[in-house]
TrEMBL record:
EC numbers, comma separated: 1.3.1.104
Predominant cellular place of this UniProt entry's protein: mitochondrion
GO biological process: fatty acid biosynthetic process
Compartment list: Mitochondrion
EC category: oxidoreductase
InterPro entries reported for this sequence: ADH-like_C (IPR013149), ADH-like_N (IPR013154), ER (IPR020843), GroES-like_sf (IPR011032), Mito_Enoyl-ACP_Reductase (IPR051034), NAD(P)-bd_dom_sf (IPR036291)
Catalytic activity reported: a 2,3-saturated acyl-[ACP] + NADP(+) = a (2E)-enoyl-[ACP] + NADPH + H(+)
Protein name: enoyl-[acyl-carrier-protein] reductase
Domain (Enoyl reductase (ER)): residue spans on this chain: 10-320
Matching Pfam families: ADH_N (PF08240), ADH_zinc_N (PF00107)
Length: 330
């Protein structure tokens, strides 16, 4: 799949045949099993994201692939045919059947990590882990608050926080499937699930949050900041509303609120991503990050997949199943 111009994904993305290059001595030939369609992928195609690949380009920033062949200088003790691998950096172009890739840009994933979990393991769970670790030292019993709690990052935050005995206040929008979504979030450990308007009342019995995680912006971000404890930190890692983050002056002066930003693609080297995966994979082997619901589409039906990924109030992550998927156990 490739796009030669920016625009609506379902319009500008085309399915094309491209000749594979030779496998160099330090390369690995892989067949992709599955690749998700993330909001950032759509933003890149639309030309609205800071990461701007040279055109024509193959979309897709994460996925899982099967090693078919390794180059003569690749360590056969680490990579061998049949291994599953994931990319260590963004911009790989994972929406394709096969690729020749540098071995040092890949990370081996154990076969007992479910395929769709592995395909969605390299962006959202690492982002969640960084959000919890890089800004505030959270002790067991501490409280955090987040909007967009039903997003993939939001769900990973809940699972990681629950494992650390950290309370979570989780804000989601009013939606037709509210009961189903809120029940799902509670089932993976959410302490409180509420709307923006009800967040203060719903969490009155809890310690004030030390950390707020914002992926929405606008009034939602302002409300998060107002709910923080003195000296609390709000971290913005997304802006789904396309509205600015506004922190009222009194919060800065009298509550010493701190505002930070985070983007995994620019704040995380390959070595750091590998270290994050070392922490996350044992959890994934025990079933973590598998609770989000997946909606799978064959690559031939990619237009339907792209349209579905653009719809609001989806019940799950849209994932492209690539031809090699049929050769593995999901």
């Amino acid at each position: 799949m490739r796009f030669a111009e920016h625009g609506e994904a379902a319009t500008v993305v085309k399915l094309e045949e491209v000749e594979l290059g030779q496998t160099g001595p330090k390369d690995v030939l892989v067949d992709f099993l599955a690749a998700p369609i993330n909001p950032s992928d759509l933003n890149i195609i639309e030309g609205k994201y800071p990461l701007k690949p040279s055109l024509p380009a193959t979309p897709g920033n994460e996925g899982v692939a099967l090693v078919r062949e390794i180059g003569s200088e690749v360590d056969s003790n680490y990579f061998k045919p049949g291994d599953r691998v994931v990319p260590l950096e963004a911009g790989f172009g994972t929406w394709r059947t096969s690729a020749v890739l540098p071995a040092d840009c890949l990370y081996r994933v154990p076969s007992n990590v479910p395929t769709l979990t592995a395909a969605t393991l390299t962006i959202n769970p690492p982002t969640a882990l960084c959000l919890l670790d890089k800004f505030v030292h959270l002790q067991p019993g501490a409280t955090i608050i987040q909007n967009g709690a039903n997003s993939a990052v939001g769900q990973a935050v809940i699972e990681l926080a629950t494992a650390r005995k950290i309370n979570t206040i989780n804000i989601i929008r009013e939606r037709p499937d509210w009961d189903e979504v809120s029940s799902h979030l509670r089932s993976i450990g959410a302490t409180v699930v509420t709307t923006l308007d009800q967040a203060l009342a719903a969490s009155a019995h809890m310690p004030k949050p030390e950390l707020a995680l914002n992926c929405v912006g606008g009034p939602s971000a302002t409300k998060l900041a107002k709910m923080l404890s003195h000296g609390g930190t709000i971290v913005t890692y997304g802006g789904m509303s396309l509205q600015p983050v506004t922190i009222p002056t009194p919060l800065l002066i009298f509550k010493d609120i701190r505002a930070r930003g985070f983007a995994l693609s620019i704040n995380c080297s390959r070595a750091e991503k590998a270290a994050l995966l070392e922490q996350l994979i044992p959890m994934a082997q025990k079933g973590a990050f598998s609770s989000q619901r997946f909606e799978t589409y064959a690559i031939e039906d990619f237009k339907s997949a792209l349209q579905r990924a653009s719809e609001p109030f989806r019940g799950g992550k849209v994932v492209l199943e690539l031809p090699a998927y049929d050769t593995c156990e999901a």
